[in-house]
Design brief:
This protein is an alpha+beta fold and 418 residues long. 15% of the residues lie in helices and 28% in strands. It contains six helices and 24 strands.
Amino acid sequence: MCSQPLTPMTQHTIIESEPSMLRSFSDHYAAIINLATKTTPITTLQTTQSLGHTLAANAHAKIAVPPFNNSAMDGFLVYANDCQGTGPWTFPVSGDVPAGAEVATVPSGGALRIMTGAPVPEHAGLAVVPVEHTDIPRGPNPLPNTVTIFTAPKAGDHIRTRGEDTHVGELTTPRGTRIDAATMASLISTGNTEIPIHRPVRVAILATGDELERQIPNSNSPMLAALCETHGAEVEILPTSGDNAAEFRATIDAAHNVDLILTTGGISAGAFDIVKEVLADDVWFSGVAVQPGKPQGAGTINGIPILCLPGNPVSVFVSFHLFALPLIQALSGQTPLPFHQRPQLTAIADCEFRANGKRDRFIPAIVSYNPEPHVRSSHRNGLGSHFVASLAGVNGLVYVEHATDNISIGQPVRVLLV
């Protein structure tokens, strides 16, 4: 059983293979990250247009959040010390303070009606009494002449103080952060209207194989393109080169102005595996101790990092998440999370997951919540690198170490979320 958290696979995944030694998962991961010798160029962008980009420098607050003391409730602004004894207390109401108004003076022994977000003077002893704690009905009503308060307030009640969330100069977002909607809101709220970002990684994708389109649809290229774009990269799909070595080389050499090349197919032991044949002088090719996705290639060509992935679509899908995604993150200025720190959970197995015995398995699976997490293989017959139609709905990769027992129905299993 593999019920412990995922751990880095450093010592246990280097195993004997025919005819050569397989590279460990962790060694291949490190070799791939080392291909990111430089990040994409830095430019400046309006923060409102920065979704999906990577922040290129630490962002600090230019304004405090909130920028001034303000009311957290609709109610009445009074001095807490004016509510002495057991109450209730009745005060004259001298005016309204809506959101967006100027700061108003609170008269001693009196009250102001105030709305959520309206400014509050930075005077000690003030408090906001929620309208629910008074004799004034909720909702839009004319300004009352008086208000009766039933619950004694304490100084500072329901007042958001200036800088309570963030002070001017405080680090809010470290460089290398990929900007999502919440991060964008944080940057804008702290006065960062323009930010330095890394240009998106430009990825060229090239599928090989005479069978593509002639006999079977090419799902690899659009799948890889969608995966890359989901993670902020820009994509160019190169013309499929078939199994012609000269055509493949010409296509690779024509891939200019890109930061990464991804190829699929042509790297195993077949007589027509032209990718390995053409790139052997520049790219490392061998096996990695994972299933699916054992055949892998990684290196640089014309100064551009290149990953050569297997041809079977399920192997491509798994290889992208294990290897290509971390490289895209590194090239874009992010710090890729080590495998054991990536989003994952423990789920109850709803089917058997068999161990390989020699290679760590990453099985495309579907996680559901009933309400606790359950997981099942995406295909009724388990794992097959050609079971591309069974990728529909996949949201996780079940991780089964090679040295463990099979995972039986009802046992816990680790799942990498994708």
